[in-house]
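Handout, section 3.2

Students often ask what a structure token actually looks like in practice. Rather than define it abstractly, here is a full record for RagB/SusD family nutrient uptake outer membrane protein. The first block is the sequence as you would receive it.
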Amino acid sequence: MKHLKIFAALLISALLFSCSKEALNTNPTSGISDETAFASVDNAQKALNGIYRILYTQYTNQHRDGHGAIMINLDAMGEDYVRTNASYVYHYQSYRWLAHRNSADDNVNAFTYTFYYIVISNANQIIERIDGVEGEAATKAVIKGEALALRAWAHFQLVQLYGKRYDATTMPNSQLGIPIVITSSTEGQPRATVEAVYTQINKDLDEAISNLAATPASRTGSAKTHININVAKGFKARVALVMQNWPVAIKFAQEARAGIDNLMTNAQYTAGFTDINNTEWMWGIIQPADQVPTYGSFYAYMSANFNSAFTRVNPKLINSLLYAKIPTTDIRKKLWWDGTTADRANFPTIASQTKVIYMHRKYQVPDVATRAGDIPYMRIAEMYLIEAEAQARAGNSTAAAQALLPLAKNRDAAYVLSTKTGAALVDDIMVQRRVELWGEGFRFLDLKRTNADLDRRGTNHKLDVANIMYVPAGDPSWQWLIPQDEINSNPAIGPANQNP
């Protein structure tokens, strides 16, 4: 932990006063003192902006493109994202279920661990100091609220990966989770229990929501790069869903979309998923063309129309069995090629591109000359899905069907209110979730939290490419190993506390 936190302390100096790519260098030759960083509310705001820039910063190589790279890795570990072939190494070891179980892997295992602790460490500096900064109390409250929400979000991401799943039937969840880091101290912390981590996450989110009470629900453009009260409530809904706390998940999923309940039109749905001004986006990032790395970025790997070597030979596909479950009247079916010549005309043309049935066109850069684009982190659609799933799992089938209806009807004009109950209704909601959130970084986490098997068998996954076709629920490999550098450098953990 110690080396990660020193690294994070350097980053806040590097990010404070500039948005340029050069200022995101993780090894600055000179830094701004903490006193300068927190000498005014304006400077504190710039420090906060720096954390958001961390989310899309590339760290040392193409594998490590901030949170966007982690989103791709997590979907690659599921069954709904399908690789065309084995060419190029990016996200490949995640697809094959190797990187997360290799404690010496730097590009996925250690990078993910380091990345979220960088966010946490920078947030801690703001949380600890903002109350003593000269300035308007209301402004300071919002800055602190955003920092608390970011700290909670980062701990939440980490505990889902490196700890065992939260199980509401086993209380308390005493299995080892991750170190809780809520101060700027560089002293290594032990692994806390999963229960303790979730307790801290909820504490931070509750305080964040209180601090963000005055933030506007409806926002456009660059304002959506920052967390407001609706996004913080969206985090609460996500956390409650993982904890199987159905009433809290329902409550906060409803409140998260209050005042912003604008699902996108069908025309917007097929427009490329790269515009933060989309009415349905709650939180995302804008990666300007002058800040995109020379190689890499989310859209260099996930777009359907940027002409990169990776996308030419390895278009990303949807699971063929999942595709078959999408009604032909559903706009979402149009995001993947049905294999016909007629439908091929609806998809971008890239010279020398491999053309494969089920290839997507969900993500498209607005300018084919650059790999830059906005990336969605939270959308209103997810809140409908959380509410519907929580209602269904709580046994409230009628309420679950009603909760799902607005979203499902928006995507498919022919959709009618479901009369299913119990497991059949839950299954339908999960299919809706899988289709809706394809490529947005949720699938591995959804499989783990629901204690479901990974099953790629009988689909368009190829054994020689995928390596792993089936992993039973509860298998030790659902836990990511703690990075070896952390084991070696943090005496509060040590080899004895590595995951099995």
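Discussion prompt for tutorial groups: The first strand starts at residue 81 and ends at 82. How would you have guessed this from the sequence alone?
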